[in-house]
Specification:
single chain; alpha/beta; 149 residues
Length: 149
């Protein structure tokens, strides 16, 4: 039997979070943390609302997942995020020792790969899951922002 809870399924959930950020006027990045096919954290960018440059979706998701698990390490957890993590978020993910990161769109300018950021040696990373959908939402957001100014 086919597993319904695959990377596409969970990335769609992260995209729902990105839509929530978009609706609030935030840069549309969404993230969820999954353990054993169960979503334990949902988050999206809140940098404008909280007036906090560190309030990225990944940071919010790490905190929520840690609170849910009752500890700081995210062993056996997977982060699904609509945009490749930046250097700051990748650093926090390093310290969380998360097992896996799955992202949608690549961030060619500020992503952890182009910045040369190291992840924890036990962390695996995979990109490109629903990348077109994530990228389209991001482009729509910035086109609208430019037209407003």
């Amino acid at each position: 039997m086919e597993n319904l809870f695959d990377d596409t399924y969970f990335m769609k959930k992260a995209l729902q979070e990105a839509e929530a950020a978009y609706d609030k006027g935030e840069i549309p990045v969404g993230a969820i943390v999954v353990v054993n096919d169960r979503i334990i954290a949902r988050a999206h960018n809140l940098t404008e609302l909280l007036n906090d440059v560190t309030a990225h979706a990944e940071m919010q998701a790490i905190t929520a997942a840690s609170n849910f698990l009752g500890g700081k390490y995210l062993h056996n957890c997977t982060l699904y995020v609509t945009l490749e993590p930046c250097q700051m978020c990748a650093g926090a993910l390093y310290w969380s020792q998360i097992s896996k990161i799955i992202f949608g769109a690549k961030d060619e300018q500020r992503g952890c790969a182009v910045m040369g950021t190291k992840l924890h040696p036990k962390t695996t990373i995979k990109g490109g899951v629903l990348a077109d959908e994530a990228s389209t939402l991001m482009k729509k957001f910035f086109i609208e922002k430019r037209n407003m100014n």
